[in-house]
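Hey all, sorry for the wall of text incoming. These are the four entities for the joint prediction.
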Amino acid sequence: MSASELAIRAIPFEKLTAAGVATQLLTERHRQNLSGLATSLNVPRRTIFYREETPAEWVFMISKGVVKSYRELPSGKRHIATFLFPGDVFGLAENGRFVNTTQAITRVTLYRIPVDALKDLLLRDADLQFRFLVKVTHQLREAQRHTINVTRHTATGKFAMFIKMLERDEHWRAESSGPRTLMMPMTRTDIADYLGLSPEAVSRTTSRLVRRGILAFPDRHRVRILNPSELDRLAGAA
Amino acid sequence: MSASELAIRAIPFEKLTAAGVATQLLTERHRQNLSGLATSLNVPRRTIFYREETPAEWVFMISKGVVKSYRELPSGKRHIATFLFPGDVFGLAENGRFVNTTQAITRVTLYRIPVDALKDLLLRDADLQFRFLVKVTHQLREAQRHTINVTRHTATGKFAMFIKMLERDEHWRAESSGPRTLMMPMTRTDIADYLGLSPEAVSRTTSRLVRRGILAFPDRHRVRILNPSELDRLAGAA
DNA sequence: CGGACTATTGAGACTCCTCAACTAACGTGG
DNA sequence: CCACGTTAGTTGAGGAGTCTCAATAGTCCG
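and here's what came out:
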């Protein structure tokens, strides 16, 4: 793999209080620069923004809601590359075509920006571009973490690390010190496709974690962490 | 995962004839901008450039040779995030500290640039920064491919896709239409750590592929592809 | 309220991991 | 330059874990 890495001291915009894309990724000036280009959209869940291999004409920035980015594999299996949350940017392309398919998991509010106009803007505004560079670098770190996660062979460890990921994400979006109940809008099948497990394995794993008193599921889209230290132990024993 | 993606029509510098970092990533003007900052190094194999968690003060650009980037997991296992080839940039950091450990697999020639100076330069030169943005975006795509690869459960499929990766890399570095014998400087243990397999599983897989007449190994660091179509079939049956 | 999709639970097959022993290769020092 | 010691790689046998197939229960949406 001809992968590279980039060390640029990260601008801690993750630490800013979050109230949508604007305050997380952009300053007021940046937002004004983008406002002329961006179209605001509000779509119901299951909306597909684009399909893999189609011409990549836009970049998207999530304001509210959750999106999944996935590929259909030749075997017919579905591999979810990443879940995208408010503040995230998506539209990864290669040779002018989208790499993944993206679909709304919940109702989503986002901004859509023509890629050519964005490129011009980034070339004129190095400071704004740097925000994007930091953002993509962050995604690269997360992708590497994800790889480590799915490489492990125990379903319990994978699922525990998935919960930790949700917690991490929830945490920097809402500055609260972490309520113990997390929202989990994706389906069990989505989680399976993300972790590289069968839906059955996910189901067995959740049952086991509930039986052991580590997690509880008030409903299917909510998870309560009853034993954080034990969860950490399971997540860390890679 | 708060992962995002970025669609910027890729500058096809992968397609340029390669003669080191300069022509791949940078124009003459860019190189002059960087030359005052960069230190050229030439180190023997096994040299460790930095260890995970240490302060991230530099960014590196490979001119010749191959580098591995890995993490030691709590379990004592070693997970290789990526192999780095000529033209690649590395030094991924988080909160001012390196994320991975990087070590030379072969003798390596590279440039070392102080991260602060690079950041200043990138903010002044939007065009140069855009090269880096494209590069990191490319790495993100590759990281996602890698994730798909290690998610599969058959050792044969993983190894086949690994060979395809080597081939892809070799191909855009040397403009030749692909000799059927590829260099493979990393050890079997490295490959195992990269694919999420045990060394034994890698060994069994290579034996099987040789027996089936798909690959041949003139020596341990060279692989010859005897049956490309069958290799494709194995690599594609994710 | 009905129908389709999603989630859960059980039983058997498959694949890789672990442990162990042996062989080959490297590289270090005499 | 050679010899030895250490590291890396190969092959075998048994065990752990998930996948697949199948059936049932639960949920969401129209």
